[in-house]
Write a structure and sequence with these properties.
The chain is about 70% helix and about 0% strand. The chain is an all-alpha fold.
């Protein structure tokens, strides 16, 4: 890590912390830092790496950049957590036996869900 990059990252950590609501100025500053720090990921790049990160297939350098971005960006932390929850819910749905659907569930929706489960 360059001599300049480390103090900038520490300043960003101090200024932004892990607060979920940084405010508009804080979000703009964080976005500027993410675009301008060497080796840093933008939120869009972060999103493109989520699957590879979750699968463990990122190289060490990309993994460090991903971890740092997740530490500094509350929105991407929320996105990643929802991604993991979605995968887990999908696994659970595909792993459970067919159960009786609630009476108020439209028949077309129940058929579509059962058809999708058969493909799992």
């Amino acid at each position: 890590m360059s001599r300049l990059r480390q103090p900038l990252i520490e300043a960003l950590r101090w200024m932004m912390g892990r607060q979920e609501n940084a405010g508009p100025a804080g979000l703009r500053f964080r976005a500027w830092m993410m675009r301008n720090l060497p080796g840093q990921l933008t939120c869009m790049e972060f999103e493109n790496f989520v699957h590879d990160y979750q699968e463990g297939s990122l190289d060490p350098r990309a993994r460090r950049a991903f971890d740092l971005h997740m530490e500094l960006c509350p929105m991407c932390r929320v996105y990643f957590e929802s991604y993991l929850q979605t995968i887990e819910l999908g696994r659970r749905i595909c792993a459970t036996d067919d159960a009786a659907a609630p009476a108020e569930l439209p028949e077309e929706l129940a058929a579509a869900i059962l058809a999708a489960r058969r493909k799992c």
